[in-house]
Design a protein that fits this description.
transmembrane helix; mainly alpha; transmembrane
């Protein structure tokens, strides 16, 4: 069985994306470690709120476009390339429109959010910078999703690594020149996605995409699929970051910085999930019957299980390294890190189930209920746990939420197959 798994195209493609993700995640971790050490817990807490807002609004403004892009471009690349180009152009235009709307909304609301929601007036300028970065995040995700649809996994990895490497070098230079602060580190963060997007335009058949016509005729087909994706994506995006916002409202900026440090250390796991989904999504979309899907599903699930076991073995090492890398000021990040890391391993283990429901059964609407349940857990249980146990309570709540996110679609899938 394991020999068959090792000989599959999925495993070979996964090797590329996993290696690329580990390098990319390592660079990202180093970026945040340097920021945390240079800025200190309080300032790093403010930066965490700004970056969380940027990513949250970008996820909402995507309105399911990335998933729809992968679904329809992958399905049409072989038999109808012109239609695939139209879907790419339509997705790009949607992202440009939502980028402008999102920028205006957050830029204008920044003073209100900083003063009356977070009760931290110093956040105003940081939130305005975040508004500028939303467009870059949306365009960069268009580029990486397009590479995913074309199954250009090596280039997907290279673009991510290259942009993160430049960002890391930039932080080193600013730190060396002793001019690193919250503002210029945030500017560096938001500028690199734009750069990565423009590089990708030279890789994709950009001319053919731009020259395609009547792309809005496909809007109904795209949005019919995207609407349920967008609904659960928006709810999931809010619930995935609600723990950070609750800590921002209920705790001090120092506590936010502690939790932000623990959170950033586990972010390589969602990137790994995305990398594996990068390979799996087109596969699940192409299967014609349950037999094909289940054969692939079993091999993929065993592969993911092996990665989870390896992840568990790294926990003791990580516990030792946290105060060494971040400094003694972040000693309190160890316990929340453990719970958050286990939560991300559960998330990793869920990939085959999630991809089969979304791409094989074409039922993204199932995740609307998953997202609603997760939001209720993070909002309700999270408020109680954070109020009583601080950042540790927040991390335990995240673990409970990821377990729910795995069990609900698993039960749905089992019932569906039995019927």
């Amino acid at each position: 069985m394991f020999r068959k798994i090792l000989n599959t195209a999925t495993f070979r493609q996964s090797q590329i994306t996993i290696l690329g993700t580990l390098i990319n995640g390592g660079l990202g971790a180093l970026f945040y470690i340097l920021l945390a050490r240079f800025l200190g817990p309080a300032n790093f807490g403010l930066l965490t709120i700004a970056l969380t807002t940027l990513v949250l609004i970008a996820d909402i403004a995507d309105i399911g476009t990335n998933t729809g892009l992968v679904r329809f471009v992958s399905a049409n690349l072989v038999n109808n390339k012109e239609k695939a180009y139209k879907f790419l152009k339509l997705a790009l235009e949607v992202k440009l429109i939502t980028s402008v709307i999102s920028f205006l909304a957050i830029f204008l609301l920044a003073p209100f959010l900083a003063t009356y929601v977070f009760h931290k007036v110093e956040l105003t300028i940081l939130l305005k910078f975040s508004a500028l970065g939303i467009g870059g995040a949306l365009l960069f995700s268009f580029a990486t999703s397009a590479l995913q649809a074309y199954q250009k996994y090596f280039l997907w990895s290279a673009i991510n690594i290259f942009t993160n490497a430049i960002r890391f070098v930039g932080i080193l230079i600013l730190g060396y020149l002793v001019i690193l602060n919250i503002e210029n580190s945030l500017i560096l963060y938001i500028s690199l996605p734009f750069f990565g997007f423009f590089i990708t335009l030279f890789i994709l058949p950009t001319k053919k995409i731009i020259q395609s016509r009547d792309e809005f005729n496909l809007a109904k087909e795209l949005f019919k699929y995207n609407i349920p994706v967008a609904i659960f994506t928006i709810i999931a995006a809010v619930s995935a970051r609600l723990d950070t916002y609750l800590t921002a409202v209920l705790l001090s900026t120092k506590d936010i910085g502690i939790y932000g440090a623990a959170n950033q250390l586990v972010q390589v796991m969602p990137q790994l999930v995305s990398a594996l989904g990068l390979v799996a999504a087109p596969k699940f979309s192409s299967f014609q019957n349950n037999s094909q899907m289940l054969t692939y599903f079993r091999k993929f699930q065993l592969f993911v299980l092996g990665l989870c076991i390896l992840g568990i073995l790294t926990i003791p090492i990580s516990i030792y390294l946290i105060p060494v890398l971040f400094g003694q000021a972040y000693q309190e990040a160890v316990t929340p890190f453990i719970f958050l890391f286990i939560a991300m391993l559960v998330f990793l283990f869920s990939i085959p189930v999630h991809n089969s429901v979304i791409f094989y059964f074409s039922r993204p609407d199932v995740f609307i209920w998953v997202a609603i349940g997760h939001l209720a857990i993070i909002g309700g249980l999270g408020y109680i746990m954070i109020s009583n146990y601080g950042v540790v309570g927040a991390s335990i709540t995240v673990l409970v939420g990821t377990i729910f996110n795995f069990l609900y679609p698993l039960i749905w899938m089992v019932i569906k197959l039995k019927r």
